[in-house]
Specification:
Order of helices and strands: EHEHEEHEHEEHEHEHE
Number of strands: 10
Keywords: Allosteric enzyme, Carbohydrate metabolism, Hydrolase
InterPro entries: Glc/Gal-6P_isomerase, Glucosamine6P_isomerase, NagB/RpiA_transferase-like
Function: Catalyzes the reversible isomerization-deamination of glucosamine 6-phosphate (GlcN6P) to form fructose 6-phosphate (Fru6P) and ammonium ion.
Bound molecules: 2-amino-2-deoxy-6-O-phosphono-alpha-D-glucopyranose
Radius of gyration: 16 Å
Helix content: 25-40%
Pathway: Amino-sugar metabolism; N-acetylneuraminate degradation; D-fructose 6-phosphate from N-acetylneuraminate: step 5/5
Distance between the termini: 14 Å
Strand order of the largest sheet: 1-10-9-6-2-3-5
Active site: 67, 136, 138, 143
Shape: globular
Length: 241
C-alpha cells in the first residue's frame, strides 16, 4: 500500500488522476472501476480536463461502477446510474454503452448482480479501481463485517451510511435501505486501486485502513493486501496516522 499525503484537498484530484493514468497506460482497452460519492469528483474533473485538452483519450475505455441503490427509481437524480452519467460518462466523453452500473431495479437483483460480477471476472478484474472510503471504513457499499471474499451482491445499508448519504436526498426517509455493491473480493481482483479521501471526517477510517489490523471491522483495511493500492489523501484525512 502506497500512501500519498497532499498538503491540501485541492491537490488530491490531480495527484490521483496521475496515478489512474499511469495504471491504465499502455492498455488498448482500459477498464476503469468507478466510485460515486463526493471524494472522487475532483479526480474525475481532472481526468475530464485532460480529455478536453487532448492529453487523454478514453474513448476505448470500459467502466464498471461499484454500486447502486436498490429501490430507487433509476430516473432519480441520485441513482448512481445518473450520478455516474453526470460526473463521469458525459464529462469524460465515454460511450454510454461501455459504462455499466449494477442494476438495482432488475426483477431479479441477485441474478443481475451475479451477471455483473461475471462480466468483471471475465475481464480478469478492472485495470484501475477508483475508490472513496465511508466514514465507517466501507468501500463500495461493503459495510463493516462484509466478507473479504464477497462478490457483487445485495447489502443492507447501515444507519450511519444512510445518515451520511442523506445530504443527497430531501430527507433521511428517502435514502434507500438496500444496495447492490461489488464485493471486497471483486474489488481485490482489480490490477490496481486508487483511493481518495479528504477532510478530518475521514481521518479515523483512513487510520484504521492504513495502520489498523486487517479486519472486517474496517473493510477498507483489506487494501493492505492489495499488490498495487495507492491511497491519496490530504493532511486533514491523514491527521490520525
Ligand atoms: C458512498 C459510496 C462509496 C463512497 C463513500 C464515501 O456511500 N457508496 O463508494 O466511497 O460512500 O462517500 P463520500 O466520498 O461522499 O464521502
Amino acid at each position: 500500500m502506497e500512501v500519498v499525503i497532499c498538503k491540501t484537498a485541492e491537490e488530491v484530484g490531480p495527484r490521483a488522476a496521475d496515478h489512474v493514468i499511469k495504471c491504465i497506460s499502455g492498455r488498448s482497452t482500459p477498464v476503469l472501476g468507478l466510485a460515486t460519492g463526493s471524494s472522487p469528483l475532483s479526480l474525475y474533473a481532472e481526468l475530464a480536463r485532460r480529455v478536453e485538452a487532448g492529453e487523454l483519450d478514453l474513448s476505448h475505455a470500459l467502466a464498471f461502477a461499484l454500486d447502486e441503490y436498490v429501490g430507487i427509481d433509476p430516473a432519480h437524480p441520485e441513482s448512481y446510474a445518473n450520478v455516474i452519467r453526470r460526473t463521469v460518462t458525459e464529462p469524460l466523453h465515454l460511450s454510454e454503452s461501455r459504462v455499466r452500473v449494477p442494476d438495482g431495479a432488475a426483477d431479479d437483483v441477485a441474478a443481475a448482480a451475479a451477471d455483473y460480477d461475471a462480466a468483471i471476472e471475465a475481464l480478469g478484474g478492472v485495470d484501475c479501481q477508483i475508490l472513496g472510503i465511508g466514514s465507517n471504513g466501507h468501500i463500495g457499499f461493503n459495510e463493516p463485517f462484509s466478507s473479504f471474499s464477497s462478490r457483487t451482491r445485495i447489502k443492507t445499508l447501515t444507519p450511519q451510511t444512510r445518515e451520511d448519504n442523506a445530504r443527497f436526498f430531501n430527507s433521511l426517509d428517502e435514502v434507500p435501505r438496500h444496495c447492490v455493491t461489488q464485493g471486497l473480493g471483486t474489488i481485490m481482483d482489480s490490477h490496481s486501486a486508487v483511493l481518495v479521501a479528504t477532510g478530518e471526517g475521514k481521518a479515523e477510517a483512513v487510520a484504521a485502513m492504513i495502520e489498523g489490523p486487517v479486519s472486517q471491522v474496517c473493510p477498507a483495511s483489506i487494501l493492505q493486501f492489495h499488490p498495487r493500492a495507492i491511497i491519496v489523501i490530504d493532511e486533514a484525512a491523514a491527521s490520525k496516522l
